[in-house]
Amino acid sequence: MAIDTSIPVLVVDDYQTMIRIIRNLLKQIGFSDVDDAADGTEALAKMKARRYGLVISDWNMEPMTGYELLKHVRADDETRTTPFIMVTAESKTENVIAAKKAGVNNYIVKPFNAETLKNKIQAVIGS
């Protein structure tokens, strides 16, 4: 199954180091068009200005969490179908269930490697 690595990807995390790590993993997989945002509010503004083929967002952020971002993305006709992967350090069952109900496409628990990320992306946008 092939992944279209030419699509623009938005990485949302309030921790710059994590953005760098995810950016590097995406680069290893073959993605080159990667934007980032420090929180859900910034991510929404970027998503209004540009269409992304994939959003990879952390769950725990201030002032808008990744979960709140996901709910905004799914409620907007422009962004409703954007593939969305949630990244979190917690594997709480209730969080996974809440994210699924809100329309997340996939879920990754930290720490993870390029192979895990690739498999999750492939499951979401592979053709």
UniProtKB/TrEMBL annotation:
PANTHER family: CHEMOTAXIS TWO-COMPONENT RESPONSE REGULATOR, STRESS RESPONSE REGULATOR PROTEIN 1. Pfam families: Response_reg (PF00072). This is Response regulator. Residues 8-125 form the Response regulatory domain. It comes from the Bacteria. InterPro entries: Bact_response_regulator, CheY-like_superfamily, Sig_transdc_resp-reg_receiver. The modification 4-aspartylphosphate is found at residue 58. Gene3D superfamilies: 3.40.50.2300. PROSITE patterns: RESPONSE_REGULATORY. Keywords: Phosphoprotein. One of its GO terms (biological process) is phosphorelay signal transduction system.
